[in-house]
Structures are given as structure tokens and as C-alpha cells.
Design brief:
By secondary structure, the chain is mostly helical. It has one domain. The protein is built from four helices and no strands. The longest helix has 15 residues.
């Protein structure tokens, strides 16, 4: 455990909670809080803040919008196949 952690409350959509739980399980992080900390650490150290905060992403505009495990896994499979060819 690096650094003292404090409890903070955030309001997020259900699909984002699902995404964090999926990441925590897939990468054996322990829980969704650790998955969120990993994302925040990436944003703080390696993320391009202009890309993160200035680019508008509206994944919930469609009636069935939001993060979906099946779409994520399909996209990751395509990216892996392109990378290893």
C-alpha cells in the first residue's frame, strides 16, 4: 500500500462501475478502487490531459450507450490481432 488512502464519494454511471469491476478481476487488482487508482495514476503520469479532458466522448448518447464488456473484449481482440500481424 503506497501512500495513505482516504475515502471519497463519486457519482458515476453503472456501466463505469461494471468497467472498473471487470478491470479489477481481469488484472487481479483486488477491487474496483484499485482499478480506479490505476486509471488516475495513468492520467497523472502518462496521460495527455488535452486528449483526456478536451476531447468530447459521448458513449451514453445512444439509447443503449455506455461501456460494455463484450464490445471492449471484441475491440481488444481486433487491436491484438493488428499488433501481432
Amino acid at each position: 500500500m503506497a501512500g495513505k488512502k482516504i475515502s471519497v464519494e463519486f457519482d458515476v454511471q453503472k456501466d463505469l462501475v461494471d468497467m472498473l469491476e471487470f478491470a479489477a478481476e481481469k488484472y487481479q487488482l483486488g477491487d474496483k478502487s484499485k482499478a480506479l487508482r490505476c486509471l488516475l495514476d495513468f492520467a497523472a503520469t502518462d496521460g495527455d490531459w488535452d486528449i483526456i479532458f478536451k476531447q468530447i466522448r459521448c458513449i451514453r448518447c445512444a439509447p443503449d450507450g455506455g461501456w460494455k464488456k463484450e464490445e471492449h473484449e471484441a475491440k481488444q481482440g481486433i487491436i491484438r490481432n493488428q499488433f501481432y500481424q
